[in-house]
Structures are given as structure tokens and as C-alpha cells.
Amino acid sequence: MIPSGAEILSAMGSVEVHTTSKRGASPEEVAQRCVDKIVSVSDNANPLIQQQARAFKENIHKVVEFYVRQGIEGYKTDLYNEALKAGDDSLAKIIRRL
Description:
By secondary structure, this protein is mainly alpha-helical. 61% of the residues lie in helices and 10% in strands. It has one domain (25-97). Helix 1 (27-38) packs across helix 2 and helix 2 (47-85) packs antiparallel against helix 3 (89-97). The radius of gyration is 19 Å and the shape is elongated.
């Protein structure tokens, strides 16, 4: 078994594996993985630059998380509408409560 967050080196570069137990990845987790790929902060950089980069990374995380949540809500709306269209009102109610 590969531990959560394990990094594997392959011929094509590094691969990260993130796992959860009995749930999907949260919007926060998805946003963090995204931001970690977009923004990196060098340990060798000037401390002021590091501080600015970390502040920028935090702001980017908030933006990415917001849009991940928007995407989830849009998808739930699509599922709800498809359930209604199929005549499954009870399923639509369950989806709406998610």
C-alpha cells in the first residue's frame, strides 16, 4: 500500500498519490494540491520574497477553493435536474441535501 501523499519517481517524472478513507477529497484538499502544483516557495529565496510568495499562495488557495466549490454546486444542480427529469423526486431530494 502506498501511504497518503507518497511521491513516486518514474521515467516521466514524479507522481503523487493522495488517498482518503470512505470519502472523496474535500474542496480544501483539492485546492491545496492544485496550489502546490502552481506555486512553490524556495527555501533559498530572500525571506521577504518567501513571505510574499507564501501570502500569494494563500490567496491563490482561497480563489481555487472557491471555484472548486462552485464547480461542485453546479454539478449537484445538474444531477438534481437530471433526477427530476427522470421522475425520481426522492433521489433529487437526496442530491439537494448533499
